[in-house]
């Protein structure tokens, strides 16, 4: 099963759903030719190099032999091609060897990388996080020493956060960093679930490690961020001795077998402090937003991959009589129920893609907007959309991958077919980088009050503007899209108001509806993305520009989404505003424990 | 992770959701003491014998060595305990050594068997199918020779239907049966996906095989049902020579590794005709309803198992501050979002359990009702509910298993935890015994017209009666249950009317909404099941009978289901009545192919 990079769809979504043109001033090089060329190049890499390794990565996986982690077959060479092609440095600062392109374009590129081979994509994804953290919080020396080699991809990076007792609640970590008497630090402790924590595809690994310092206050304020390289680095950048850290084990996981998930043992490892003592968690959150958006993009990616495979299968497999044509042994595609499922899969993928790329454009504007007001508004938007991009898109990833298995029928359950791998791989994305439950709590507990409510208010206003534009354009091809979106938005507004009111005096009520609210708001924002695409498609068709069939599909997908997903939004509000009284009254024993 | 058989919940659902007391006349032995004793006994077997083998079954699986399939470790001994305990013969006719108990009680028992070890449960489940087919269509000689040994569990049975080109569309099978000149038949062909097609846990395997006969008409009318034993059986029942059939391979599957899924090669195998020449498919459908209900029960079962594991984990794992108590490092259970998720999981499980047990009670009444009118009405109910029981419950199975993984956080993705196995095992149930898409087509294409609409009309009437009863009882503890159920039922009625109207003149429109309709109707019927339970719980509480906390939870689950699932039903109607115009206008190329 080959992977076809959806370059045209991504470019369309970047432009029309995410508003990429607003970056023109800040990124003059990122014109549409460049965008297309970059996406085409990445698409070729993804399709030709990375996708063919995906099944072997699953079957063989990474292995730990004699204390050394070996990447899955072919991953090392592919990684070198990835780095040499400059794919690691797209959005990095030119001062550190980067190409200075927008992060939103990088997200478009990484969607294709993750779709082709999600286990592979995690390696550079973690490196990007380390680059982000060091660029913001590293000393001049650290930036000069580490960033060029991370940006080039010569070295890779990791995030060492989780410990056995400390997952969602990082305030409880116990890994200890003590001064080594030489101006540096010595780290001792165990970290788990460390993605690409050890491997043989690059010369060195820059571990960013959260640790507690002696005499530090308890809780999050006692946690600092440290850098501990796998191989010690001399002042001139050459590699020295091995550091006192190692992979103590590899997890046996449901999916992403090609990504080594390590137990990391720090046994008095030499380390440097990054940023301020006691600010470790805050510094780590710098990379967290970007990482969460990347994970949301993995949801889109795995859904796209699963969708393509299901579509291809539906065109090959013949079974039963078509209700349309009466043909016996018709293609699955020619059964209405199957075609509806495929189109719903694609509609949700395009909605999620729009959300992720919009979040990325907001991040670009937050750092590169022309005015402080622009940057500030964009930062609010990025902060608000990030939990939705992460959670809604990864839920889509699991659901679409499951539908992909289903369309294959019995063959979907057979591992050789490949559909099952997507179902397994997709399942991690709602979990890592903050579970989707944590995202929902973040949305309700923190993001609704951002800018004293300006963040959510601005979003609602922007969505109303699109409804006005739909009504003004008045293309009958929109169907009931405007009405469905408006009714859904009204429900979202009411649910939001309830949460804001309730949050102030009865947090359990608000939190009990957090997941339902994130789903509801994501459904609406996703519909907004498709609506913006529909407006653009309608205008292009009216102007006689572009591929009318492909543009018409954007309209059809928006209509189908409106009648299925958006039509169900008002009914979801009751679940948001249900409150926690029944929960509070329920004991484990009453639930069968 | 131990499994606790939910005996009390199953007994409650049998009685109050499924109306088990209506069987009192036909099954005088099945009094409540007997029901409880049977469920307790099966629960002990499931928890003590079958559940502990589940993980080994997954890890080691069944193996094919030198042409012989060996069951997973411990499965052979467990199977013998199962058979010796009489669990295979519960609902079989006493004439063949059965215990003559209701099938609905058997379904309650098998829910626990599948929950404990779904891969194991498939072996006796297929045997029950073979018993059903032979009891209905076998000759006196076949029944005398095979049934006692199948009922006792000494031998097991299989269904050989699928071929590589022929899955959902059995009219295209090519396996050939030719007269052997000796009064018997000789079968040649390849069958795939044959569950427990070969193994070493019993002395013989009775294969029921669909095959085409020479000169038979094309399509389904040319297909007949044959019996081909693994080991030939002498007239006195003793075993003779090996038959010319074998397992040619085992599938490498996503889950249920403990269940050998075989490619079966028939190489001139000696066989007997079962029933009428050319009626093979019709005869096979005799066992299909029962098998579909069993698979629906697997959905309930795997959801129950995943729920129990998630609940247990939520009580052990401590992470973050509780919004209720303010306690740091609170149990996951003490976070509102997690508790809501757990209660929604349980509410959907109880809804699905009610649907499956109601279908089973209808099946019992269809065969044992006092009058022909009773039997006929029950048969309609069984036929109507079967696709819902199969598809809705297995979709619940996948979703609840996925939520179970999610509640475990990172540990959910690690195979050692066991949550991931449920997610993998659950995925087959929406596929086999007719994909859930096929179930939806069956519901819309066939079941809505059953009894010229009487089947669906009676169901709607019964649901209205329950709404009336809720209103009459007027317990404030029902919350808005009556109103939510009524609004949902109105939406279901309208969607049903649209489908019946559209089916007559535009089948693609109707079929394009089939899956959405099955989901909608299942949501309503599930709510009805919980409402009946709520009525019973309310009455018991008012009478001061039973465990008030446990009964109160029945009410709480019904309320939560009403505000989350039922509240979303009206919004789903638009998806049912959307029509197929956009689908018909969409080509593969327009979707990216």
UniProtKB/TrEMBL annotation, chains A, B:
Residues 459-585 form the Acetyl-CoA dehydrogenase-like C-terminal domain. It comes from Caulobacter henricii. This is 3-methylmercaptopropionyl-CoA dehydrogenase. InterPro entries: Acyl-CoA_dh-like_C_dom (IPR025878), Acyl-CoA_Oxase/DH_mid-dom (IPR006091), Acyl-CoA_Oxase/DH_mid-dom_sf (IPR046373), AcylCo_DH-like_C (IPR036250), AcylCo_DH/oxidase_C (IPR009075), AcylCoA_DH/ox_N (IPR013786), AcylCoA_DH/ox_N_sf (IPR037069), AcylCoA_DH/oxidase_NM_dom_sf (IPR009100). Residues 77-154 form the Acyl-CoA dehydrogenase/oxidase N-terminal domain. It catalyses: 3-(methylsulfanyl)propanoyl-CoA + oxidized [electron-transfer flavoprotein] + H(+) = 3-(methylsulfanyl)acryloyl-CoA + reduced [electron-transfer flavoprotein]. One of its GO terms (molecular function) is oxidoreductase activity, acting on the CH-CH group of donors. Belongs to the acyl-CoA dehydrogenase family. Its cofactor is FAD. Coiled coil: none annotated. Residues 278-442 form the Acyl-CoA dehydrogenase/oxidase C-terminal domain. Involved in the assimilation of dimethylsulphoniopropionate (DMSP), an important compound in the fixation of carbon in marine phytoplankton, by mediating the conversion of 3-(methylthio)propanoyl-CoA (MMPA-CoA) to 3-(methylthio)acryloyl-CoA (MTA-CoA). Keywords: FAD, Flavoprotein, Oxidoreductase. The lineage of its organism: Bacteria, Pseudomonadati, Pseudomonadota, Alphaproteobacteria, Caulobacterales. The keyword Oxidoreductase applies.
């Amino acid at each position: 099963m080959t992977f076809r990079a959806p370059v045209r769809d991504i470019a369309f979504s970047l432009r029309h759903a995410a508003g990429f043109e607003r970056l023109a001033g800040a990124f003059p090089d990122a014109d549409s030719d460049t965008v297309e060329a970059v996406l085409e190049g990445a698409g070729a890499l993804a399709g030709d190099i990375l996708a063919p390794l995906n099944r072997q990565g699953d079957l063989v996986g990474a292995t730990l032999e004699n204390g050394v982690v070996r990447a899955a077959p072919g991953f090392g060479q592919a990684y070198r091609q990835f780095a040499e092609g400059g794919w690691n440095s797209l959005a990095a600062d030119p001062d550190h060897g980067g190409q200075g392109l927008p992060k939103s374009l990088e997200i478009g590129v990484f969607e294709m990388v993750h779709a082709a081979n999600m286990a592979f994509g995690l390696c550079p994804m973690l490196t990007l996080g380390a680059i982000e953290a060091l660029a913001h919080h590293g000393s001049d020396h650290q930036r000069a020493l580490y960033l060029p080699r991370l940006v080039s991809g010569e070295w890779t990076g990791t995030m060492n956060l989780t410990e056995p007792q400390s997952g969602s609640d990082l305030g409880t970590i116990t890994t200890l960093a003590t001064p080594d008497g030489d101006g540096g630090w010595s780290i001792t402790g165990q970290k788990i679930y460390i993605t690409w924590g050890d491997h043989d595809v690059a010369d060195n690994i820059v571990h960013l490690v959260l640790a507690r310092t002696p005499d530090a206050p308890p809780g999050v304020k006692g946690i600092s961020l440290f850098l501990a390289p796998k191989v010690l680095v001399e002042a001139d950048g050459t590699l020295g001795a091995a550091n006192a850290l190692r992979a103590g084990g590899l997890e046996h996981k449901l999916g992403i077998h090609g990504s080594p998930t390590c137990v990391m043992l720090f046994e008095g490892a030499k380390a440097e402090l990054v940023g301020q003592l006691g600010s470790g968690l805050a510094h780590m959150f710098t990379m967290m937003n970007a990482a969460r958006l990347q994970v949301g993009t993995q949801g889109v990616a795995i859904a796209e991959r699963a969708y393509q495979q299901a579509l291809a299968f539906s065109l090959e497999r013949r079974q039963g009589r078509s209700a349309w044509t009466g043909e016996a042994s018709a293609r699955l595609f020619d059964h209405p129920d199957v075609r509806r499922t495929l189109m719903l899969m694609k509609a949700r993928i395009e909605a999620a893609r729009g959300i992720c790329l919009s979040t990325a454009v907001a991040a670009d504007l937050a750092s590169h907007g022309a005015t402080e007001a622009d940057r500030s508004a964009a930062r609010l938007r990025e902060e608000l959309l990030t939990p939705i991009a992460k959670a809604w898109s990864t839920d889509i990833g699991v659901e679409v991958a499951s539908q992909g298995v289903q369309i294959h029928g019995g063959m979907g359950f057979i591992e050789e077919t490949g559909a099952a791998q997507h179902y397994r791989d997709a399942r991690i994305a709602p979990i890592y980088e903050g579970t989707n439950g944590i995202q929902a709590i973040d949305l309700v507990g923190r993001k609704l009050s951002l800018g004293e409510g300006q963040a959510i208010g601005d979003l609602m206003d922007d969505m109303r503007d699109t409804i006005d534009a739909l009504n003004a354009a008045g293309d009958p091809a929109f169907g009931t899209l405007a009405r469905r979106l408006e009714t859904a938005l009204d429900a979202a507004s009411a649910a939001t108001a309830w949460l804001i009111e309730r949050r102030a005096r009865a947090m359990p009520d608000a939190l009990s509806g957090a997941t339902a609210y994130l789903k509801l708001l994501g459904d609406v924002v996703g519909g907004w993305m498709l609506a913006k695409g529909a407006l653009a498609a309608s205008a292009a068709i009216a102007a006689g520009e572009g591929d009318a069939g492909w543009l018409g599909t954007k309209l059809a997908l928006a209509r189908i989404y409106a009648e299925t997903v958006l039509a169900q939004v008002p009914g979801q509000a009751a679940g948001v505003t249900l409150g926690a009284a029944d929960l509070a009254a329920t004991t484990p024993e009453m639930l069968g424990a």
